[in-house]
Amino acid sequence: MPELPEVEAVCRQLAPLVIGSKVVNLDLKLPRIIREGNVDHLLGVTFLSVERFGKFIQMRTTTHISLFVHLRMTGQLLWEPAVNLKDRYVRCIITTDRGELYFRDVRTLGGFWVCDSDRPPWKNLGMDPLIREFSVGYLSQRFSTRKVPIKCLLLDQTIVAGIGNIYASEILFSARINPQRLAESLSPPEIIRLHGAIVEILQKAIESKGTTFKDFRLSDGKEGEFNESLKVYAHQDDACTVCKSSILRIVQSGRSSYYCPQCQPHVIPKAS
Question: I want to staple 175 with a disulfide (CB 3.0 to 4.6 A). Which of 16, 144, 180, 194 is the partner?
Fold first, then answer.
């Protein structure tokens, strides 16, 4: 957390507040959140856009540099007055001629990158699932030879950028695919269902402004509302909304996976 829907919701909320505003002051309270570059280079610039790629936020400016932000586990970008000025977890305050933007992070795993707009900080990120180029063919090509559980590949940011643990479980439930299935075993119809589920679940979550379990907040301080729409994630032993079977939880690569054993059977492919 936060995943693609949460980051997209933050971008959409910040855009009308930030775009066109000029940075007039910077108060960096914890220097180590700056992962690259010099935050003072933002002084005097005007923000031109607020965009998302995967889980990264990019705020382009009138110069060649951008402010890139990754929220990671507990990071928050809050617009005044959605934060207590005495909050000890506020790590940086960006004052613009329209108001103040606060970066709050309890665990300080998130950070800022102030670098060339055309040289983003991410490396080897896969395709963003909400762009036109994200296709059934792309998924088929990336999965066809992988002897890895499909749930684990959905979390691989070098394949699809932005999906995390919550939405991987929800996507696989929607596509009726068991999280333990090897990626190479998926049939063409299953790849089609998976592609559709990725796009549909992420878009629905964005419309609900993401999911909040503990730390995630929108820029106005409010929580995401997609929790009420979760079908399997964190629903261990609850009745499946489709077939009434009990939702199961397993651990894959150290992460919890939730699924319905009836709707998502663990089909073992026949030997060729």
Answer: 194
